[in-house]
Amino acid sequence: MSYLRTFLPWIVFAALPSGDWQWAALAALVVAVAVIVQQIRAGAGFDALIIETGSAVFFAVLAVIAFANPDSGVHDYSAALSAGTLAVIAGVSLAIGKPFTLGIAKRTTPREVWGLKPFIQTNVIITAVWTAAFALTAVVLAVLAHAGNAHSTPATLIQVAGFALPMIFTVRYVAHVQAKAGAR
């Protein structure tokens, strides 16, 4: 559930009709802000809101661009820019030693585990996979947009895969790590 909540603004943006991209960007911004407010009220710290904060900033900028010029060329590249932004956010979280998945994992992990090297290393690996998936998704979507297929079925499938594959990896890898730890 934590990952779904984290990526809800992006899901909203992707699910709304591309012809109404300015409203989709505004809806995603509203959802991002609502998630941040809800999570702060629930006691989440900034480390648990890295993607959410980046999402709010991205969708605020995108909404301004989209409302200022609904026919902007940015529209065709908005999916690629979305994935690219997520790759940058995730990559920066790794670079500063605060992998974005760490904050999410802390929501369901006992506090005494948070500082342990295996817990941190697991989150570094998971965040690296998400970063790579976002980057690859951005490149493929940019190529499709450049070819005039930004709003095609293949582009939609690439967007879904860009979230589904790292999600599957995360679930399986965490299960693997937990099973390995349980065997010790």
What does this structure look like?
With 184 residues, the chain is mainly alpha-helical. The chain has one domain (2-183). 76% of the residues lie in helices and 0% in strands. It has helices at 2-15, 21-41, 50-68, 78-95, 100-106, 117-146, 153-183. The radius of gyration is 17 Å and the shape is globular. The two termini are 29 Å apart. The model has no long low-confidence stretch (mean pLDDT 92).
Task: Provide a concise account of the structure shown.
With 184 residues, this protein is an all-alpha fold. It has seven helices and no strands.
List keywords for this structure.
184 residues; mainly alpha; 7 helices; globular
| Cα radius of gyration in angstroms | 17 Å
CA(first)-CA(last) distance: 29 Å
Query: Tally the helices: what do you get?
Result: 7
Helix content: over 70%
How does the major sheet shape up? none
Number of domains: 1
Oligomer: single chain
**What is the H/E string?**
HHHHHHH
Please mark out the parts with pLDDT under 50 across 5 or more consecutive residues, or reply none.
none
The assigned structural class equals mainly alpha
Characterize the overall form. globular
* Beta-strand share of residues: under 5%
SSE blueprint and pairings:
Blueprint: H1 2-15, H2 21-41, H3 50-68, H4 78-95, H5 100-106, H6 117-146, H7 153-183
